[in-house]
Fold this sequence. Notes:
By secondary structure, the chain is α+β, with helices and mostly antiparallel strands. About 35% of the residues lie in helices and about 20% in strands. Strands 10, 11, 12, 13, 14, 15 and 18 form a seven-stranded mixed β-sheet that branches. Strands 2-1-26-27 form a four-stranded parallel β-sheet, covered by helices on one side. Strand 31 (about 795-800) and strand 32 form a beta hairpin. The longest helix has 23 residues, at about 630-650. The protein starts with 10 loop residues before the first helix and ends with a strand. The relative contact order is 0.11. The structure holds one RNA strand.
Amino acid sequence: MNPEYEPQNIEEKWQERWDRLGIYQAHDLENKKKFYSLVMFPYPSGDLHMGHMRVYTISDVISRHRRMQGYNVLNPMGWDAFGLPAENAAMARGRHPQQWTQENIKYMRDEQLKKLGTSYDWRREVTTCEPDYYHWTQWLFLQFFKKGLATRKEAPVNWCPECQTVLANEQVEDGKCWRHGNIEVIQKKMSQWFLKITDYADRLLNDLDKLKGWPEHVKVMQRNWIGKSKGAELFFTVEGKPNVRINVFTTRQDTVFGVTYLVLAPEHPLVLDLTESRQKKAVQDYIESAKHKTELERMTAEKSKTGVPLGSLAINPFNGDEIPIWISDYVLAGYGTGAVMGVPAHDERDFVFAKLFDLPIKQVVSPDGKAATELKSAYLDAGILVNSGMFNGLDSEKAKEKIIDWAMSNNSGCARIQYKLRDWLISRQRYWGCPIPLIHCEKCGIVPVDEKDLPVILPIEGIEIKGQGGSPLANDTKWLNIKCPKCGQAAKRETDTMDTFIDSSWYFLRYADATNKKEAFALDKVNYWMPIDQYVGGVEHAILHLLYSRFFTKALKDMGLVDCDEPFTNLLSQGMVTMLSPQSGRIEKMSKSRGNVVGTTAFFEQYGADSARLFSLFAAPPEQELVWSEDSAIGQYRFLGRLWRFAHALQDQGVEVTAKTEFDENNVPASAASLLRLTHKTIKAVSEDLEKEHYVFNTAISSCMILLNGIYKFTGDKTEENNGGSHKSKSLSELEKQIVIFAYRNLLLLLAPMAPHITEQIWHDLGFARVEDESIHVHAWPKYDVKLTIDNEIELVLQINGKFVNKQIVQRGLRKAEAESIALTDSKMVSKIDNRPVQKIIVVIDRLVNVVI
RNA sequence: GCCUUUGUGUCGGAACUGGUAUACGAGCCGCACUUAAAAUGCGGUGCCCGUAAGGGAUUGAGGGUUCGAAUCCCUCCAAAGGCACCA
Length: 853
């Protein structure tokens, strides 16, 4: 055994051995408790940095721990390989996206993930851009299509000029493209494919309550995104136009008597019909200018409102009031009915609008049932209705119900629930994605590709990617032109490809049966493994990927393709890895563009993967942000060196470790009892720290360090002549040696999931493995004896008025009276009490005595 | 503006169910080993006053509950993230 810890010499050897032995393979349908551990698969960008390494380490430790606990663990890995960066790289470097992607995958798998010491079952690797995967993406799309869950409709959509494609709502942040923070998204009216996620809005919302193992903030974000509002749709008629009706959506139908105007979105279909000729020019000018405003301008213009009256009047069905109709771009065309009732007294925005255009303000809800003379600002709270005819005196809640009742019986409205969530726009005008398996036939319309003709292969040869002017697929006439499967006449393929989020909405199901050539996945296998017991990933997918995957799972359950209706039982959303950025001088998220990336290769070469793993686990709890610093990473390298040198010292002294691992626990000499106790305590602490809902790796590692320090202290020779240089052991009795070995052996087992290489090496060097091919990683997780975690002596804390004064070492289990008398006779206590009368004594058994004076 | 999360030494962070605040690591200081340095082993190290013994204040700020509060309650401040003209 090398006296120095040199990770470079051991890590690769074990990685190859584990691979050869197949110890990380998951066994389908095995009659054993399963554990499906998953980490969000990466986009093969070509380089993983420490931020990625952190999340893979966390998930890997969880998997390894469960494996040692005896679970049948599925821990797979794959590649989210379709997407724009491949096309952009292709244009920049003149490489084909496929070639570029495959090279990146090879590098990331072999040089990065494998070298981190991960325990994936690589037989299940999936790559979303390979035909054997997207075959089934297409097949699933057809199932959605058959169920009517995939529809084509014309709608205003988000267009990113940089990406040259449309985006889903979830992929627009602050009016800008999620990939291009500086590029404004343009609204375009286009005919596009949508998946009807809104059909599942209610279930996606309600089932969040079932997800006990999800962090609250992720659930809150999903709730907000779904954005359920309960209210009413009310019908307003138009003066002089008996056939026209304006519907408005409101959550405050209790304020309907306070309506003093209506506002339509400029895009509302009735606008021109309702415009009086004298207002025609003003209205047309306004619509024109609104059209030219970008989404961003409409939002930044915020509070400053604009608008134009149409000149016509609407009639409030409740009180017959005639009220002016306006248009204004503060009303969104895409939400509700695209029209709102203006109630300035009870809505901030309406209040501002009314003040600006001098419209009347009529209070109809007040806190005490009396109307105020003049409102200085909108009164937004619930209250008692006033000025509201037959509804006067009701509270807002009650009034909301009654008003809906009245509206229904008078054909003037109905109850309505409105969601913010829109259907998922999934078509993309780009090349590097999964082709949508549909055919446009002039005679038959849209015809699905026959399932037996799947997959529709994405052509690789002869494609010219320009990034402009639509999908290059449209120029590939050989691919494009096809006979209609229905009528046999000339037809054309759909040239749009699918949003890559579709690929990632079901990859976790494919892992259950990754090589199936006949179907997406076999029922029995997918139902054996699903749902995922522990999912780990970044919070940036709180809405996007996590919502889409939930939707997919529910839809597939309804189709009978999977049993569970929630895919991820427990979710760990890990914090980002940040580092000082030399450009800005601030701590920022690690990213190439900021120039603050720490690559893995150099670090692995210098300190080894085990140190990298330990540091990313130790520096902060998993949910928290982690600031990368090589200086403190060194602490982990030192710890592992210390672990290593102790093994060497043992071996050097010819300590026989294979002989006996058992000993009589009742016969332990006092000299070693505390080390034995420390060992049991450590097993307990680390076991608890690695249990789900805890996952506090930092304290688990800290406990391991304490145990190693304890071992050093116990074995260290502190006599004068031996106080220098490296660690020297004092002479120990046979029994003491056995306890040292017991402690050290358990320490290796506890560290094995976190530092897999060094523990495996020492395990073999010291002979804990009986045969060469035995691995520490399939050894049973250590057990502890609760009896042996308890000290028989404790420190009794002595307090006066709750303040610490002194402590005494006493036997465990002292009765109240005994503890009291110790406190009252302790010399420090006596001098502090100083003969003042004792009011009260509080005793917490085996912990403290508090004397109140 | 609304929602969520977080505020503990020089730094990363511990602290069970309210019970010795600052575990573990980094940094710094010292000792040993060494010709020397590095590495390693051992010890010290939150702040203020004090040579010391000892004393005092302290978990973003202020108040409250309690024998006792980092922990529970209220008000405020700060930071990070999310949502935001959604009627």
